[in-house]
Amino acid sequence: MNTMSISEFKVKAMEVLDQVARTEEPILVSRRGKPIVKVVPVDSDSDELVPGRMTGTVLEEIDIVSPLGPDLWGTAR
């Protein structure tokens, strides 16, 4: 992964963004040698709206009384 200082990034920001978009390789930006941010390309597949994408990811509990049992249900109310 390429690294550059924040001062260099400020000067070349548009070039860096174009490079990351074109090559899909992230660039680490540092301040005084300490990494502060990583510029990464957007994963275009994850932003797509796909019907049914969340199918099977939600657990639906139809009977909310039975898991507690009748004794605890009265207490929980």
Observed structural traits:
YefM-like fold; alpha+beta
Fold and architecture overview:
The mean pLDDT is 84. This protein has helices spanning 6-23, 69-76, and strands at residues 2-5, 27-31, 34-39. It has 2 helices and 3 strands. It has 77 residues and is an alpha+beta fold. Helices cover 34% and strands 19% of the residues. Helix 1 links the parallel strand 1 and strand 2. It has a 3-stranded mixed sheet, with helices on one face.
Order of helices and strands: EHEEH
CATH homologous superfamily designation of the domain at 1-42: YefM-like domain
The helix tally amounts to 2
Structural class of the secondary structure composition? Answer: alpha+beta
Number of strands: 3
CATH 2nd-level architecture of the domain at 1-42: 3-Layer(aba) Sandwich
